[in-house]
Amino acid sequence: MAMELSSLRRCHHHLALLLLFLLAGSSIALPVQPEMERVRWQVDRVNRRGPSIGLVMSYIDEATALQSSGYFRPWHALPFVDLYGRRFHIGSIRGVNVIYALTGQRRLNAAVTVQTLIDVFSVSGIVHYGTAGSSNDSMSFGDVSVPKFVAYTGAWTWKKFKSFKESDSELSFGEFNVPNGGENLLGALKFRNEELYSVGKPMKEVFWLSVDSTWFKIAQELKVTLERCNNTFCLPTTPKVVYGLKGSSADMFLDNAEYRKFLFREFGVSTVDEESAAVVMTTTSPGIPVIVFRGVSDLAGGEPTWSSTSLMKLASINALKVAVEFIGTVGKQKSTTLAESASN
């Protein structure tokens, strides 16, 4: 009987130790809750300022252009909020509330950042600026494209060799055989539509995504003088802002002359990048205004070796200048509308 009691005591002792370890382990996770409470408090404080325009860019060079420009004025009370590994900078441009964030490259990063902006913060619209490769010979280095439509051209169905051609928007590898076109065992690629889910509407398949029509009209009225020179050289002509072209995005850095020519020939796209379509699609679903400004930093394949590196900064600055002018104009129009409403 004494041995049974001793064994029972040892069992209770082991259970107590196990419970102690479990409690110690659970206490490690407890600090996460106060951290989230602090972030919620920060977000609430930011949102009490009123709606902001979300400003997003993809590359560090594009964010550096904003940081060194002096356009952005951080909010002294709370200059940034760190959320889900990203830093959302709080401040203003031309007197307009702005929250800007570096998304990182390619579609997933861009979509996650924009979705966080519109879900967590009070955002009245999204402005996206950055650099792009040109697929249109009429676009020059340093020019800024304000596309009306963008498409994601990285979704394909790989067709079988010698399969029937269903549409003109297919890429047949055989056409690129050298020295003469012909058949190729790689077959062909059929470009796929995207599934667009929108508030109050059934899901539909789309290829072209449109920027906000009202914001596009505002952008068309902008008067912006773009930069022609950087620290090392000057372009032969002053860059220009071009409106109403088409842009394409895919999860790849395009550096192939034949493929960029194909995109221009088949779809009429003038710029190629990795994020614009994701930004536009993410904002289109909830019906939030969006616009895109892309500065041409390189020819997407077949360009001189110096262009893509030396023009990145200049293209970023020019795209930023147009975006800043747009933000200031939207802010003035909103203030005028509010003043007129108050007087009536």
UniProtKB/TrEMBL annotation:
Query: Biological process GO annotation list?
Result: nucleoside metabolic process
Q: Which UniProt keywords apply?
A: Signal
Which SUPFAM superfamilies does the record match to this protein?
Answer: Purine and uridine phosphorylases
- Disulfide bond in keyword set: no
Pfam families attached here? PNP_UDP_1 (PF01048)
Annotated Nucleoside phosphorylase domain residues: 78-327
Q: Which residues cross the membrane?
A: none
The molecular function terms of the Gene Ontology recorded here are: catalytic activity
- Signal sequence coordinates: 1-29
Highest taxon of source: Eukaryota
Q: Which PANTHER family match?
A: OS06G0112100 PROTEIN (PTHR21234:SF43), PURINE NUCLEOSIDE PHOSPHORYLASE (PTHR21234)
The name of this protein is Nucleoside phosphorylase domain-containing protein
Source organism of the structure: Oryza brachyantha (malo sina)
